[in-house]
Design a protein that fits this description.
With 230 residues, the protein is an alpha/beta fold. The protein folds into two domains: 118 residues, Response regulator (Rossmann fold, 3-Layer(aba) Sandwich); 95 residues, Winged helix-like DNA-binding domain superfamily/Winged helix DNA-binding domain (Arc Repressor Mutant, subunit A, Orthogonal Bundle), CATH 1.10.10.10. It has eight helices and twelve strands. It has a five-stranded parallel β-sheet with strand order 2-1-3-4-5, sandwiched between helices. A four-stranded antiparallel β-sheet has the order 6-7-8-9, with no helix packed on it. The chain has a three-stranded antiparallel β-sheet with strand order 10-12-11. The protein is elongated, with a radius of gyration of 19 Å. The termini are far apart.
C-alpha cells in the first residue's frame, strides 16, 4: 500500500503542484485547504504522515497539530511555513511536530523528509492510541476512545461532542481554549446556533465533573474557556 499523506495548504497554486508531484512519486495524497475540515479526513483516509502549513484559515497549524497529537501519538507531522523565527520553530515542536521545513522549499527535500519520517516510525502510525489512553482529572479518569468518564460513583457515558470538547479542554489544561477554535473543531462552523449548543455542552461537562471541587471550567468572556485542574 502506498504511503498516505494528508497535506494541508491554503495556497492553491503551491498546493496543486505539491499534490501532483507527490502523487507522481507514488504517494496517496489528500489535499485540504481549511484547518476546520482537517479532522474529518482521519477516519476514512487514515494518513501515515501529515504535512501542514502553519498559517491556515479558521484553525492554524499549531492548533491542528495539538488535536492530531491527542489522538495519534506516533503520527509524523511535518510543518511547512514561511515563518523564520526560532520561536516559531520551537512552538512547532512543542505543539507536537516531528519535522519542519521553511518556505520556499524544494519538492526533493520534502520527499526526502517524508521518507525519513516514514522510516523512523516503520509505518506504525495509522491507528489511534487506544490501549492505555487514560487522562487523569483529579478524581476522574477520562477515556476518550471509550467515550467514558470514570469516577468513584460510577461511569458517565459521553456523547461524541462531549468527548471532543472535553478532550480539547484537556489538551489545553490550565490554558485558555479559544471558543471559536473549539466551535470550528467540533461543529465545523461558528454560527450562533452552534455557539448556543456549545454553551449547553459546557454546562453538561461542568455537571459531570462537579464531584471534584479542584476541577473547574471557567468562562473567559470574549475568549473561551479555562480548564483548571489542581
Amino acid at each position: 500500500m502506498n504511503t498516505r499523506i494528508l497535506y494541508i495548504e491554503d495556497e492553491l497554486f503551491l498546493g496543486k503542484i505539491v499534490k501532483e508531484t507527490l502523487e507522481d512519486q507514488g504517494f496517496d495524497v489528500i489535499w485540504e485547504t481549511d484547518g476546520a475540515r482537517v479532522m474529518n479526513h482521519f477516519t476514512a483516509f487514515a494518513p501515515d504522515i501529515c504535512v501542514i502549513d502553519i498559517m491556515l484559515p479558521n484553525i492554524d497549524g499549531y492548533s491542528l497539530c495539538r488535536q492530531i497529537r491527542g489522538l495519534y501519538q506516533n503520527l509524523p507531522i511535518i510543518f511547512l511555513t514561511a515563518k523564520v523565527e526560532t520561536a516559531d520553530l520551537v512552538k512547532g515542536f512543542e505543539s507536537g511536530g516531528t519535522d519542519y521545513i521553511r518556505k520556499p522549499f524544494s519538492i526533493e527535500e520534502l520527499i526526502i523528509r517524508i521518507k525519513n519520517q516514514w522510516n523512523l516510525t516503520n509505518g506504525n502510525n495509522r491507528q489511534p492510541d487506544t490501549n492505555c489512553h487514560e487522562i487523569q482529572l483529579g478524581k476522574y479518569s477520562f477515556y476518550p476512545e471509550r467515550y467514558e468518564l470514570h469516577s468513584p460513583s460510577g461511569i458517565q457515558r459521553l456523547s461524541q461532542r462531549d468527548m471532543q470538547i472535553l478532550k480539547m479542554l484537556c489538551s489545553n489544561r490550565n490554558r485558555v481554549t479559544d471558543r471559536r477554535e473549539l466551535l470550528l473543531s467540533v461543529w465545523g462552523d461558528d454560527s450562533f446556533f452552534n455557539s448556543r449548543n456549545l454553551d449547553v455542552y459546557i454546562r453538561k461537562l461542568r455537571t459531570y465533573l462537579s464531584g471534584d471541587h479542584n476541577i473547574e471550567i471557567q468562562t473567559i468572556k470574549g475568549r473561551g474557556y479555562l480548564f483548571m485542574t489542581r
